[in-house]
Specification:
Distance between the termini: 29 Å
Number of domains: 1
Strand content: 5-15%
CATH class: Alpha Beta
Structural class: alpha/beta
CATH architecture: 3-Layer(aba) Sandwich
Radius of gyration: 18 Å
Order of helices and strands: EEEHEHEHEHHHHHHHEHHE
Strand order of the largest sheet: 1-2-4-3-5-6-7-8
């Protein structure tokens, strides 16, 4: 960890915290919710030892990066704008891109809006979601999955934050990072996001007490509003990206998802992945095999 260097860079009107290590072709890592640059520390060290320059920012709203209060400041154009400005500040004209969860969503947008800056993409968890011109995403989810669906529950400003505040931050982080319940993630208000405070939580081998403490310290300091604002900007993204309706992702792509990932088990996703829709919308998709049940080093598999 001491090999990883940290600095703050002013980009696109905000101060962004960036972690870096290594020299060579650059890989830009984009984390998800509720995560940080820290999620990529092992991959950064491993790939830097193979001759890559690994760059992992705290995205807008997270960690030591600025967090504008309004959800309207978290559109794909803001996030991609931050990243384009970051590449310019770092003197990078093209990068390999790696994303997970909301980082994967923003990686898809990055490839949609600025494919000229991307050598290739490795995305985890969240498949490309082509814009449906007939319906906004949040009302569609509410209709299909109900008001208790977690994305719907995140929409009202301050509501989820108030629920989160009633739960120990370390416990909340542990629940988010270790949940392995396939299927729709519904959270009725009478249950709340903390669940039963007396139920034991066991850390898996890949997550240490030190890791949870690091995440919790940053979210205790920054709060969750920045991360939740990505969900709250979903309909605004839909409105703003109308000109890109029907546009394909045209960079080389590898995709990884776990068999118990809630995204993979969301109704419609498996059919989209395995019955031609994904390949239609991402024509240079090189690998979207069955969901993995063990670690896989796919970054070495991309050759561009």
């Amino acid at each position: 960890m001491e090999k990883i260097q940290h600095r703050n860079i002013f980009v696109n009107g905000i101060n962004m915290h960036v972690a870096e290590v290594g020299q060579g072709p650059a890989i830009l890592f984009l984390h998800g919710f509720p995560e940080l640059w820290y999620s990529w520390r092992h991959q950064m060290l491993s790939l830097s030892s193979l001759g890559y320059r690994a760059v992992a920012p705290d995205l807008r709203g997270y960690g030591d990066t600025d967090a504008p209060p309004s959800a309207a400041s978290y559109t794909a154009f803001h996030i991609v704008g931050d990243l384009v400005a970051l590449l310019s500040a770092l003197g990078l004209d093209k990068v390999f891109l790696v994303g997970h969860d909301w980082g994967a969503v923003m990686a898809w947008y990055f490839c949609l809006l600025r494919p000229d800056l991307v050598k290739a993409l490795v995305n985890l968890s969240v498949v490309f979601s082509p814009r449906n011109p007939k319906r906004k995403p949040v009302p569609a989810m509410r209709h299909l999955f109900g008001d208790d669906y977690y994305i719907c529950r995140f929409q009202e400003p301050g509501e989820a934050e108030e629920e989160f505040s009633r739960v120990d931050t370390k416990r909340l982080i542990t629940k988010f990072l270790t949940s392995r319940r396939p299927g729709l993630f519904r959270v009725p208000k009478h249950v709340g996001f903390g669940g039963n405070p007396n139920s034991p939580l066991t850390l898996p081998s890949w997550l240490s007490e030190e890791d949870v403490t690091y995440y919790a310290s940053k979210f205790h300091q920054k709060g969750f509003t920045g991360g939740l604002n990505y969900y709250r900007a979903m309909d605004l993204n839909w409105e703003l990206t109308a000109p890109w309706t029907g546009v394909q992702i045209k960079v080389p792509v590898k995709f990884i998802v776990g068999d118990l990932d809630l995204t993979y088990n969301t109704p419609g996703v498996k059919d989209y992945m395995h019955k031609g829709g994904f390949k239609r919308d991402v024509p240079f998709l090189q690998d979207a095999t069955n969901p993995i049940k063990r670690n896989s080093n796919v970054l070495r598999g991309i050759r561009v």
